Structure prediction request, 564 residues.
Amino acid sequence: MAIVGSGPAGLSAAINCIARNRSVTVLGRKIETSMLYKAELVNNHLGMPNMTGKEILTSFLEHSKRMNVEIKEGRVSQILPSGQGFMLSFENEIIEARSVILSIGISKPGEITGESKYLGKGLSYCATCDGMLYKNKNVVVYSEIEEGTFELDFLSNICKSVTYISHEPPNINRENVTIINGKPSEILGDEFVSGIRVEGDVIPCDGLFFVKKSVPINTLINGLHIEDNAIIVSRLMETNIAGIFACGDCTGYPYQLSNAIGEGLVAAQQCDRFLFNNVKLD
Amino acid sequence: MAIVGSGPAGLSAAINCIARNRSVTVLGRKIETSMLYKAELVNNHLGMPNMTGKEILTSFLEHSKRMNVEIKEGRVSQILPSGQGFMLSFENEIIEARSVILSIGISKPGEITGESKYLGKGLSYCATCDGMLYKNKNVVVYSEIEEGTFELDFLSNICKSVTYISHEPPNINRENVTIINGKPSEILGDEFVSGIRVEGDVIPCDGLFFVKKSVPINTLINGLHIEDNAIIVSRLMETNIAGIFACGDCTGYPYQLSNAIGEGLVAAQQCDRFLFNNVKLD
Prediction:
């Protein structure tokens, strides 16, 4: 099996492939590139309370090492069907696999000035994770998609004020909510976020939440069914291509740790069955 | 929100309801009644390597306590629709909730003599979890369903011998596999499993794996769609009844920890959205 992506979903798939005695290679990137790496506090993944994203990712890598998961660092540029399964272009190599699990996450393009700098320093992508840090404080939500409405609802119940910036004004009318039709150009601050610039104005705030569109998944594989930028999967994590499974953020909302780990396990078990049914080694 | 069931799926749902600032009550049973409680070793839940079922459940309860999850011990006997949501008959009380998350697990009826006694002492329900403990040893698999074939395939690759007892003989022909058409009547042993009785014969073994049918989910709720003893859910854990969600083992195969936790999170988030869209408190 080849697993493309070494985030939580990919590593959960990997340890479960090994638990099923399968040979597996994970093709991924350094953990520092994970969005989770910069999370200030994660408290909604059962059994691992009150941890930073970095601590969680480190524990995942340690568990994977104990289980002898092999991780190769680099980028997969294309996946092609071959007689026995699939060929993956990986850096300067071709890697062959009987089956592939995609756990490639989502990419966040169209970076706003300051976004990398302030992520984890007042900027968050997850109100469920970080919202409580801003209880009774003033926050700004910038949303490119409808999901932002739910974050606004949630945050306006716990924060002193919420300024909601979007090109799609939500149907929420509360005293502590201000709605701005626009797009931010720059995050302001020193060590920590202090405000955001929108069309010339500056809005001061204690914290920022971004709810952003993901980009179309790169056309890694010809013919893979994708809708709303998410790979379409069954409840058993099967894609429309036999032998290719997907799990984690690349299968769509919600973009959450517990979900990624659960989907990784299911993808691995289903991939194990696929190999049992389709590859005769005896 | 009311959550019925206090296993991993239910507790994951509970902490995520609280992370979304919702009021929630968990109606469940003591952790000692969980099948996971007796697991000897769990190594395939990412981030929590090499733990017993009891250790894992204890850490889940601690996390839930930190998040102020309220757990009431007892049994829900019926759920009825009411004007504002649902009414749950719980012991001698009626509990009202706007929405319900079912995480009721599966029950394992038709106990074979010795089953409770030897669970975790040579008897396991999960080859993925415990198979490696019996590497190069002699094991018996008793299966009531087709899933048993996958466990046989897996175990016959790592164990010295596998005796497979079932009324549905599998299509596997290997030197170290013996197939018996039948049903066991008794587990034999002293402190630890030493064998199993099948139609008068005794088969000695080092370990036992049971792959059993679950029973029809009790008709807790009128009209709930169920197939193959699992509650039918969408990828977002919605059942066919608006306001009722389900997660964990009661939604079907695979019966695994990571999966239960992931589904619990998704059910909680979707339930949060349901309340946002359908219950106007402002």
